[in-house]
Amino acid sequence: MTIEIIQSDITTLRVDAVVNAANETLLGGGGVDGAIHRAAGPRLLAACRALPEVRPHVRCPAGEARITPGFDLPARYVIHTVGPVWRGGDAREPELLAACHRNALRLAREHAIDSIAFPAISCGVYGYPRDAAAAVAVAVLAEEQDKTRTPHRIVLCAFDAGMAEAWRAAAKRLHVPIGDPPI
Ligand code: APR
């Protein structure tokens, strides 16, 4: 049971599910959200729009997760989660970021998903400092994997080398074993 760290475009990964760093409307955006919607095709937006609003213009509150098919992606599913906007660290950002990872894994287990790839949630537009976010993500994923043993394959997919290095440094500090991606 290990966590893999790779640098790639998450939309190309052949995993059961990719996690999307979405916003509360679930109606798409820029960054990885835009890339996933572009690669999945227009059916993804239609599936997101069909998800119920929990309050006006909010289909997925920060920290929660929702699941849709992956449509034209190699991945069968997209698990949409909404990270916290960084506001200095005293607005429950770490708890919300941890909840994103926990809720994504909970949905994965409920759908017999055995391989899942996460982007660096909140580390782009939402401004979460990379190293602080990496520490939260690695700690939660390692704790959850130890507890539940599935998904068997958890991938942290960085878009840039700096984020991959931040995750590796966090894993080293936390003594979390990092696996080598299968050839
Ligand atoms: N594959 C993997 N990672 C990617 C990709 C990609 N194709 N494109 C971007 N990323 C990385 C970014 O480099 C960053 O490290 O995903 C991380 C998250 O950045 P954002 O996509 O900006 O997400 P976030 O910071 O959570 O902000 C979410 O941005 O796109 C909007 O609709 C989205 O409003 C929401 C907000």
Topology, please?
Layout lengths: L1 E6 L9 E5 L9 H10 L1 H8 L15 E5 L7 E5 L11 H18 L4 E4 L11 H19 L4 E6 L2 H13 L4 E2 L4
Parallel strand pairs: 1-6, 1-7, 2-4, 2-5, 5-6
Antiparallel strand pairs: 3-4
Helix pairs in contact: 3-4, 4-5
Bound molecules: adenosine-5-diphosphoribose (APR).
Task: Give a written overview of the molecule.
With 183 residues, the chain is an alpha/beta fold. The protein has one domain (2-173): 3-Layer(aba) Sandwich (Leucine Aminopeptidase, subunit E, domain 1), CATH 3.40.220. 37% of the residues lie in helices and 18% in strands. It has five helices and seven strands, in the order E-E-H-H-E-E-H-E-H-E-H-E. The protein has a seven-stranded mixed sheet with strand order 3-4-2-5-6-1-7, sandwiched between helices. Strand 3 and strand 4 form a beta hairpin. The longest helix has 19 residues, at 130-148. Residues 9-11, 21-23, 29-35, 83, 119-126, 157, 159-160, 163 line the site of adenosine-5-diphosphoribose (APR). The site of adenosine-5-diphosphoribose has 26 residues, from helix 1.
DSSP strand content: 15-25%
- What does the oligomeric state look like here? single chain
CATH class: Alpha Beta
Structural class: alpha/beta
The number of helical runs is: 5
Number of domains: 1
Q: What would you give as the CATH superfamily?
A: Leucine Aminopeptidase, subunit E, domain 1
